[in-house]
Amino acid sequence: KKEEIKKKSKLIPSHPNEDVKGFLHECIEEIINSAVYSGTKRSSRVVEWHSPEELRSLFDFKLKHHAESHDNLLKLLKKTIDYSVKTGHPYFINQLYSGVDPYALIGQWLTDALNPSVYTYEVAPVFTIMEEEILSEMRRIVGFPNDGYGDGIFCPGGSIANGYAISCARYYKFPDSKKNGLFGAKRQIIFTSEDSHYSVEKLAMFMGFGSENVCKIRTDKCGKINVEDLMENIETCISADCEPLMVSATAGTTVLGAFDNLEKIADLCNKYNMWMHVDAAWGGGALMSPKYHRLLNGIERADSVTWNPHKMLTASQQCSTFLTKHKDILRKCNSTNATYLFQKDKFYDTSYDTGDKHIQCGRRADVFKFWFMWKAKGTRGLEEHINHIFSMAEYITQSIKAREGFELVLENPECTNICFWYVPPSLRQMKRDSEFWDKLHKVAPKIKEAMIKKGSMMVTYQPLHNLPNFFRIVLQNSCLNEYDMDYFLNEIETLGKS
Ligand code: ABU
């Protein structure tokens, strides 16, 4: 019988036995060597690109009746690493996240090893206190009054954090909406800029407001919300007997990295009794540096803030927070008091059972990777990181200005998103008419295709309003240096000429 039990546990190791231990060590070794180190060396490719059809033929995706051997599983692990994009590579500057922070990585691994669900203190005591500690420190850094008084939660991404803002704003003004939803309610309008993240509209749709009730305000030439236009639209909303519910301002827009004027928005929110939310998912990282904190002046007047440490602060995916100065609003707004989790007659202080503040039930301990990383570097280390990436942004901006064939979209970018066109020699003498812009629009996609197929770097491009496709370099990896900045521009130039 013992033998049979042993055989079974070997076949289905939901508990890692000694045989599995060796396999785990081998896998970890492989991950550290291939995904973390050699895969992110400058001499390695950022991606080994294959079309979906090719990838299907190169990789055994199919699930089978039989169990695979450890040898085969290790081969599959290696192939998964080989064919995946190395987002920790210094030349991955494609998205608003990158880098592989070793402390965040080990934090993420420990979280996965312990596999908690942070809804009650009884199953996640350490992580519950850690969340409270880090969220209160973040609120202090935001500058909420009374030493960061308020509340906060970790969310599955910045989009959901922005959704929490909408739901808190609605509850704050219309507490009965918790029972009645939008039934019989006055039409409520959410204001945001045309350059804000798409999640504001998506979550408004998801929550039943409807996309027509998200009023997108024009941005100025720097990508900031036009405050006069915002005020006019609020007035129009009031004249139409609608309720101006909230403004979702942005600190660090997705494409241009623009920071809305938060002081002026706070004045308007005060005047019209509206909830002020700041989506600082991207730009929030600048708060860590006294030198760049000024970009977000006025954020301390907001009712709520989204801030994603997995972006500018390089915690591993995902690590997103929602912070508010209203102490009890999340619990009041979201609680349903499920008696199978949040029993009030537990033997400990049940205010530590924080799960009912969330709309999620099961929830990862995203706090740990960030807390561990912060411990490892200190607040000063995070500040130095921010100062460094901003100095790289300044360097590449000046290089672009000085280089023939490169043109900035914003002459003076505020954040570490640097947007620019590469104008190939064949277009340089052309008149700037519609034919020129049509041709220029096709340049970035062509260069991007060439760079992905070569695996030499990854940078995104996009059009914006009436502007043709342009590149957007995003800098947030601490290891970046001036040679890397030169490499990016040289590579784009080389690919663009070929
Ligand atoms: N959360 C926005 C990310 C999109 C981007 O990297 O462009």
What would you say this structure looks like, in words?
The chain is an alpha/beta fold and 498 residues long. 44% of the residues lie in helices and 12% in strands. The protein is built from 17 helices and 11 strands. The chain has a 7-stranded mixed sheet with strand order 1-7-6-5-4-2-3, sandwiched between helices. It has a 4-stranded antiparallel sheet with strand order 8-9-11-10, covered by helices on one side. β4, α12 and β5 form a beta-alpha-beta unit. α2 packs parallel to α4 (70-83), α5 (102-114) packs antiparallel against α14 and α16 crosses α17 (482-497). It binds gamma-amino-butanoic acid (ABU). Gamma-amino-butanoic acid binds at residues 95-96, 158, 254. Keywords: Decarboxylase, Lyase, Pyridoxal phosphate. This is Cysteine sulfinic acid decarboxylase. It comes from Musca domestica (House fly). Belongs to the group II decarboxylase family. Its cofactor is pyridoxal 5'-phosphate.
The tally of helices reads 17
Distance between the termini: 70 Å
- Tell how many strands the DSSP assignment holds: 11
Low-confidence stretches: none
> What portion of residues is helical?
40-55%
Summed over residues and divided by their number, the pLDDT gives a mean of 96
- Structural class call reads alpha/beta
Q: How does the overall form come out from the CA principal axes?
A: globular
| Percentage of residues in strands | 5-15%
Family: Belongs to the group II decarboxylase family.
Keywords: Decarboxylase, Lyase, Pyridoxal phosphate
Protein name: Cysteine sulfinic acid decarboxylase
Cofactor: pyridoxal 5'-phosphate
